[in-house]
Write a structure and sequence with these properties.
Length: 412
């Protein structure tokens, strides 16, 4: 039998949120294990060896999340690879004339946010992790069971290894196995949408703008990407790539997935009203169902949930990863306070403060996304007219519009 390995904190899930949280906790005098089912291989990600190709999974990082990534010394590594800072956002109703335009300059910011491939963020995180001797990366490891002990928690991995710690942090995603093993109850419901994601190249440059069109069958987003390696002679050539997220009712999503590339390019251009000209190229498409999920409590028996393990929302506004990074920041701050007060890591006062900080905000964002979904679904003409009037009114009311933008960006 393998001997037991002892840590102060075990983080299960080495994705964006789990790895960020490990780095946020690294400054403390703690023994930290970061456990993941797969080893991260930076050589397999697109920006390393495939110019003009992008990771289909991207995140819309807010300035607030950027600040957190700077705090854990990761942002510089991200910026050294590739990202696209966007200064504008265009949102319009596909069933009318209502629209709203957000601009960074109107709120005295250099950017509204940053579209970054998930693999680029992960690469920067995994470049930084080895700089901290108190973080041990355990991959590929899978946790098979969990048990409460007198002093904390014991985890048993499928390789026979046993891990003992004071606190376990579940950061293993929307289908969290650890959440299930620990017996957390969740509220879940289907959105009735499937998301199609891919990368496209357009005839016209995206102009550092995030575009979103709302349709009765679901929203379509074009998120700007930059690739200096493909820019060639034109400064704008590298601005012709966009990551798309097309959310649609399952029947429509299946129809779109069944199209060949030329048919899909035509359907996509039509749905986007050819705002960026013809769709010249489309990469491989991926589809996944959208489901909303929220844990009824964020902690129990020495286990605490963060990120998608605690809450999943519609990708409508690209807020999922940002909510997870805010979870990581809040939990690390509460652990700092607890340690300064001489409390144990699994002291419920620490975890209650974390839950109080994050649960209300996460639920508010979830219900806001649910409200948007219903608002822009197929509605009677009178509702459609009021919806368009509302968009136009907000667009003309700079004070309200800019306040909304600042709140979404997490800035005062």
């Amino acid at each position: 039998m393998n001997s037991q390995r002892n840590f102060d904190i075990v983080i299960v899930g080495g994705g964006l949120v789990g790895a960020s949280l490990a780095l946020a906790l690294a400054e403390f005098d703690l023994r930290i294990a970061l456990v993941d089912r797969q080893a991260f291989d930076a050589e397999k990600i697109p920006f390393k060896n495939a110019p003009g190709h992008f990771d289909p999974r991207v995140s819309a990082i807010t300035p607030q999340s950027r600040q957190f990534l700077e705090t854990i010394a990761v942002w510089h590594g991200i910026a050294a690879q590739r990202l696209c800072a966007y200064q504008h956002m265009e949102v319009w109703d596909g069933e009318g004339t209502g629209s709203i335009h957000f601009a960074a300059e109107e709120i005295q910011q250099s950017a509204l946010g940053y579209i970054i491939e998930n693999s680029v963020i992960l690469a920067a995180l995994y470049q930084t992790l080895p700089l901290h001797g108190n973080i041990e990366l355990l991959t590929p490891w899978e946790i098979d069971s969990i048990a409460k002990t007198e002093d904390g928690v014991q985890l048993l991995a499928s390789n026979g290894e046993s891990l003992a710690c004071s606190l376990v942090i579940a950061a293993d995603g929307a289908n969290s196995k650890l959440r299930e093993l620990a017996g957390f109850a969740t509220r879940e419901w289907e959105y009735g949408h499937n998301a199609i994601v891919t990368t496209v190249k357009t005839a016209l440059p995206h102009e550092a703008t995030a575009w979103q069109r709302f349709m009765p069958t679901g929203p379509l987003a074009f998120l700007p990407l930059d690739d200096d390696k493909t820019a060639g002679d034109s400064d704008l050539a590298g601005q012709r790539f966009s990551s798309i997220v097309w959310s649609a009712v399952p029947e429509r999503a299946e129809e779109l997935m069944a199209l060949d590339d030329d048919q899909f390019r035509h359907a996509l251009g039509k749905a986007f009203e050819h705002r960026l000209g013809n769709i010249e190229w489309v990469d491989k498409r991926f589809q996944f169902p959208l489901r909303q999920r929220h844990a009824q409590t964020y902690f129990r028996d020495g286990v605490v949930l963060v990120g998608d393990a605690a809450h999943t929302i519609h990708p409508l506004a690209g807020q999922g990863v940002n909510l997870g990074l805010l979870d990581a920041r809040a939990l690390s701050q509460e652990i700092r306070r607890g340690l300064q007060a001489g409390r144990s890591l699994n002291d419920e006062r620490i975890l209650e403060r974390y839950q109080r900080d994050r649960k209300g905000h996460n639920m508010s964002m979830m219900w806001l996304m649910e409200g948007f979904k219903h608002l822009f679904a197929d509605q009677p003409p009178a509702v459609t007219w009021l919806r368009n009037l509302g968009l136009a009114t907000v667009d003309n009311f700079s004070l309200l519009k800019n306040a909304m933008a600042r709140q979404a960006m997490g800035i005062d």
